[in-house]
Amino acid sequence: MPAIPRFRIRLTDKDLWETREDMRKESEHTLAVVERFEREFASFVRRQYAVFMPSARYSLYRILKYMSFEEGDWVIVPAWTHPSVPSMVIAAGLRPLFADIEGGLYNMTHNTVPKEYWKKAKAMIMTHMYGCPTTVYELLELADRHRVKVIEDCCQSAGAAVFGKMVGSVGYAAIFSTGYTKNLPTLTGGFAVTDDQILANHLKDSRSSHFNPVQELKRSMRSCFYINHFTAPYMYNNLTHFLSSMGIAVGWDFVHEWHKEPVITPTPRIKPPTPHPVQAMLGMKMLATLDHFNKSVAANAEMLLDQIKGIRGVIMPRVTRGHQHIYTGFVLMVDKPWEVKKALMTRGIDTAPGYIMNCAAAPEFSEFNVKCVIAERLQAMRIHIPCYESLYKDQIDDMARAIVHICGR
Length: 409
Prior knowledge:
The chain has 409 residues and is α/β, with parallel strands linked by helices. It has 15 helices and 14 strands.
């Protein structure tokens, strides 16, 4: 059985070559192309307005700065999140209130937010982690009762839904990421969506009139070409897997370290460039097949989950009734994850720890540290199992047998 990389990106070499061709069509590089993509994405999410932004974190920062908060107001934030989220809260002059998560959902839910938080907070960042929607309506009810504004973090969940309603369509505003590792990739960038026209205009004004430099897009494209090359079967089986195995054997995950970011995200610069029309062209192509892509990934995840469920002591992804999970990440909680990782690697299955962390215990946010038991356990026990569209049934079966054998011992 061919070895299985920890991830494959959605952008194929064909997509990237077509994007290179689009770069040559300078007469089509107009703001109208960006605005068309914005309208299509707004329709997809079922919001009045969508603004194509330089990044999701910049979107969050601008939304928080726009809202009528006072310096030092509190914002409820899930403990298990990307560190850029509390970084942007702090950069906006606010303070994060970290709340624990539920195992299996890996999200902050209405069950995990302490009652006293609702009396202090002015806003809440409601995250749908790994493509799994949180308990949306229960959280919204609590937020409405206490007049807490809700911002949805949909950076890993474009296309997920709750009782048929798209994530990103229920809060005051929502943010999405469209980086090249995401399920709606535009090389770089993100989206902010809302039904508030004044906020939408504010977000558009927060971008400069210049487009993202083509050179920056070419750098992202080179990264994509390299990833595709080194995770393609011919190269992965003959070189990449061997190198990764050598690193894991001595306790060094060089792939993870290569992609690692600093915990503290700097305050965004004023008026970064507007995403390039070429990015919008690529985004519209990706958006047209996003539902099909999400369903393919979810089908693979559910096939794997069906074969490994019931292993004693292993916490699996779980889905709340009526919630459409799209599995942009497939995370297990296991004892001794590094030992499991090494054992899976010997069977040709690469895994990853991921880049989400328990920010409630991070020394970089020491002023706001609180005890979040499940997030702490997840930090110590998490392992990301490969789950993407291009997996074959035989590979999924092989992974399931390996997980049952190793984790069920």
